Amino acid sequence: MAAGAIEGGASAGVGADGRVLAPFGRRRAAVVANEPTGGYRLFSAADAVGPLPRAGQFYMLASERGWGGGGDRPYLPRAFSVADATRDDRGVRLSFLLEDVGPGTAALARVEAGDGLLLTGPLGRGFSSPDELNPDASGAILVGGGIGLAPLALWRRELGSRGIPERSLLGFRDRAHSGGMELFRCSEVRLASEDGHAGHRGYVTDLLAVMLEGDGAAGAAVYACGPPTMLEAVRALCEARGVEAELAMESPMACGFGACFGCAMPLRGGGYMRLCVDGPVVRTAAVETALVAGAGHR
Amino acid sequence: MSGPVDLCGLPLAHPIINASGTFDAIAARRAFGDAVLERFPFSAYVSKTITPGARAGNPPPRLWEEPAAMVNSIGLPNKGVEGFLTTDLPQLAELPVPLIVSVMATSAEEFATMIVAVAERDEVAAIELNLSCPNVRSGLIVGEQPAESRGLLEALRPLTPKPLIVKLTPNVVDPAAVGAAAVEGGADALSLINTLKSSPLAPSGEPWLGAGSGGLSGPAVRTIALKQVADVVATTSVPVIGMGGVERGCHARDLLAAGATIVAVGTASFRDPLAAERILAELGSPATSHE
Fold this sequence. Notes:
The complex is a heterodimer of chains A (298) and B (291). Chain A is α/β, with parallel strands linked by helices and 298 residues long. Helix content of chain A is 17%, strand content 29%. In chain A, helix 4 packs parallel to helix 5. The longest helix of chain A is centred in the C-terminal third of the chain and has 14 residues. Helices cover 33% and strands 19% of the residues of chain B. Chain B contains 10 helices and 14 strands. In chain B, the strands form 3 sheets. An 8-stranded parallel sheet of chain B has the order 3-14-13-10-9-8-7-4. Chain B has a 4-stranded antiparallel sheet with strand order 5-6-12-11, with no helix packed on it. In chain B, helix 5 links the parallel strand 8 and strand 9. The chains are: A alpha/beta (298), B alpha/beta (291). The interface between A and B is large, with 50 and 47 residues.
């Protein structure tokens, strides 16, 4: 349990599995910033009553303006991993990384300081500590692809506050699909880009493969978030090397709290989990594949 | 309009309940803790539909968003009646409101077995019959056929004194005829509307949903619900639970004015787990009006 995670608003509490409980119901937070970062946007809101989330948890978000009001999409809220969370005199400042890819993200990309952000959260279960994944873990390896670096940024800060060493590998498609690097300031980061504009020309999983060579696998605990194809490559690589890993996954979901049963993720051995309440952080051993059907509906 | 109400002898604190399958009280406690019990927004709780055996549900994708609506194709994942009674019911019994269990089966015999097993539990106040499944003998969707619905209710009615509520589908020419037949067979109350059959397509033109098609819900269906509730109320004297696209107090008021005894909130709870609490407050406020 991260120190400070159980502080927070009146309704803050911790569930049996260590997740930080959300205040019941949707609430309004005030947008305090929305800035471009590379090809993405980083926006922040002041959550006056909510608790500090754990890294890997997520929020269901909707902008107060332009969301379903005109009878058009977006109608449902959108799930976002929290990229940063700090306590200040206005409550908890929550930051989210956004890529404008559809009507929901377009509405959120337009929010300005002072606007209302309707949110429910923190939701889901976050990352497990490295020693829970691997008793011999010498630290954490964080592998991010594109905006998937968001939950890893908060995880990096939590690990740092606990004195656990961490190395980060971040990959981007190209310059237009990159950003959020300021969240990894003062961190050991290795970069990969498919177009070669930054770091290794190729995939971030190339960097991971090198890191897990030789004795690298024995002390490794891997945490990954990114597009499904990248997560599947990480999963397969870790499985081949016998490395425990957790994947922060996403799926279309209507509610985020287990009501709609929309975010079904096939389990190894049959059946489904609900990514919202049983994830979004998933142990690789629990799934056959990280390729989630339906991830393309924005 | 927002005060206590009687539903088939069940005293309810107010007229807002949940639609089956739109609020998982057990999962909600995992996310929100005991605040769910302390501030439970519904005056009765309707379970997700249970079936005789366990079901994993449909392959994903299971959701699609439309303007002012969503399409779901979940496929009734549940533990089966035995798993429900053993695992879920004790947890649902902790809710501070009467419990209505939604059941579905593919034959009168299966329905009968489930009704007996569920109704004998003291924690269960009433049973809702989900009739959107085919009868394995006739191949007909029970809830789409007045005669099938009447016959099923005649078979089930003697099995329990507890209220039997029949959930009506909107996917028929005349829902009121099905409702009237169910009441003739012995139904104590009717609830409507269920989702509207819907087939979203991926950009490729292929079916988007893993199961091919699903059901549409949300604000887009509100006026359909209003019409069908009014039609059903006009042909029956039993209580009617009205639902479909209720997002605000005025929408609940419209269904009550159309003759519904109580109103269920469904898809709106996905957007805000406490939507029902707000809707009730708006219903009780004289200032509430249509925008």
